[in-house]
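[Automated response] Your request has been received and processed.

Submitted sequence:
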Amino acid sequence: LRREGLGGNYITGLSPPPQLEPSTDNLDVDYQYFDDYVWPLLAHRVPSFEAVKLRSAWAGYYDYNTFDDNGIVGPHPYYNNLYIATGFSGHGLQQAPAVGRSIAEMIVDGGFQTINIARLGYDRLMLLEPLEESNII
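Generated structure:
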């Protein structure tokens, strides 16, 4: 949930659980999903939203790393001339500056210099060690 400008508008979102995931061939907005799932959580968290009305909505494809929903950053385990920065879903925009700098440092300096983001490396997929994040929408 975040405020959008100063006009009293807010943006929110909630990914459906797997059993409610819509078909990928239909991008129609399910307005009932807001009423049944999003609105109750909003009203519980912020009681003044009990009277909120949905003004607009969109639906689209959401690309992400299905292993643990987090980005993958660093050298490929088999190809030493291939560096990866992928799988970030919606939070990639927030992490892009740090990831870009980290990849540049890895290529130029041979390793992370500013921030050690090795935990986002490809190794965790090979070792089946997910990096769990519970606050991703």
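Summary generated for your ticket: Helices lie at 31-45, 92-109, 123-126. Residues 72-126 form one domain.
If you did not submit this request, please reply to this message.
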